[in-house]
Design brief:
single chain, alpha/beta, TIM Barrel, eight-stranded parallel beta barrel, 15 helices, globular, disordered C terminus, metal-binding, rSAM, rSAM_sf, BATS_dom
Length: 375
């Protein structure tokens, strides 16, 4: 069984309609339950729950402190390549967009790594476009080998891979995987991905599970909020994380909550997700999955990110560039999207401390000094 079976189980269900039918009394009953099921989770995503955000915030804060303490993990992305063979209509790396394409060689990767390491960060996320003939699993693995002396924790956010490719990355020092389904709406997914290997909905949907089977320490899932009705995608994101938590208890499962941002292209989001809606998703997710990590990236503005810290966030990016070679300042390439929080690592740390929380640079050390996980 894969998570596809869970998605198929809801085919024909009117999830936004079910959320509209929820009453305030339903929300209060859900908040009194020690453990929430899928129905209660959807209840907390409903319009009726929007009037009870303070009560949700209090419970979300208590659960976050209980399971994670007052800590926020910090990381930053390193873009290795913006070559892409897909035509995702919402992405700046779309193969049809007329932008300069570039790819870091080993010296460029080393310069980027040294520039990031100088900021004190210890957790790095490697990204590429979807062009495996150029930026292959072997290329990404070699990049990890080049960078692992600087960063005890290396993650990847790249194209969906086969299980043996994830196992190869693990042997190279990668320990975590981030892969967004973008939208769980299958028909919409096909329309948003008109060409390229990413068009395969099921292969992408099952990729996080393949990462779990390969031995990834941390697997991070999510939807790009704004592509579809936000309640439907937030619901399936939580269900996906719950499925992985239950089936792979040895893997830390996390969720990211990215919203659409301006990019090189004309696509406009179909469903705007306001700040209040983003807060509601965050609170509902924390109450539904108390042990799940939650990432808020620099897609969000500094003021909002600071206010979200006590509400369930466990991981934030800092000192971000979404351009290939952007950290060492040796590029003219266009970033994947515009960021909203351009603060330095030090400035983000200061903001976290002002909220009474501790910025954490490192909580992981590969025991063999070479591989993240023995595979």
């Amino acid at each position: 069984m894969s998570f596809l079976r869970v998605v198929q189980g809801y085919e024909g269900a009117d999830i936004p309609g079910a959320a509209q039918a929820v009453t305030e009394a339903d929300v209060r009953r859900a908040l009194e339950k020690p453990v929430l099921g899928p129905d209660e989770y959807l209840t907390l995503l409903s319009p009726a729950a929007a009037g009870l955000l303070e009560a949700m915030a209090q419970r979300a804060n208590a659960l976050s402190v209980q399971h994670f303490g007052r800590t926020i993990q910090l990381f930053t992305p390193l873009y290795l390549s913006n070559h892409c063979t897909n035509q995702c209509v919402y992405c700046g790396f779309n193969a049809r967009n007329d932008i300069a394409r570039t790819m870091l060689d080993e010296e460029g990767i080393l310069r980027e790594g040294e520039a990031i390491a100088a900021s004190g960060l210890k957790q790095l996320l490697l990204l590429t476009g979807d062009a495996p003939r150029r930026a292959s699993a072997e290329y990404i693995g070699q990049a990890a080998r080049t960078l692992r002396d600087f960063f005890p924790s290396l993650g990847v956010e790249v194209f969906a891979m086969r299980e043996e490719e994830y196992a190869h990355l693990l042997r190279c020092g990668v320990d975590s995987l981030t892969l967004f389904q973008e939208t769980y709406n299958r028909s919409l997914y096909a329309a948003l991905h008109p060409a390229g290997p990413k068009r395969d909905y099921t292969f992408r949907l099952d990729a996080p599970e393949r990462g779990c089977r390969a031995g990834m320490r941390l697997v991070n899932v999510g939807a790009l909020l704004g592509l579809d009705d936000w309640r439907r995608d937030a619901f399936f994101t939580g269900m996906h994380a719950r499925y992985l938590q239950k089936k792979y208890p040895q893997t830390d499962v996390a969720v990211s909550l990215p919203r659409m941002r301006p990019h090189a292209g004309a696509f406009q989001p179909a469903s705007l997700v306001g700040d209040r809606e983003l807060v509601q998703i965050l609170l509902a997710l924390r109450i539904f999955l108390p042990r799940c990590g939650i990432t808020i990236s620099t897609r969000e503005p500094a003021v909002l990110r600071d206010h979200l810290i006590p509400l369930g966030v466990t991981r934030m990016s800092a000192g971000v560039s979404t351009a290939v070679g952007g950290h060492a300042g040796e590029t003219e390439s266009v970033g994947q999207f515009e960021i909203s929080d351009p603060r330095s690592v030090e400035e983000v740390c200061d903001a976290i401390r002002r909220r009474g929380y501790q910025p954490v640079f490192k909580d992981w050390e590969p025991l063999d000094g070479v591989c993240a996980v023995a595979v």
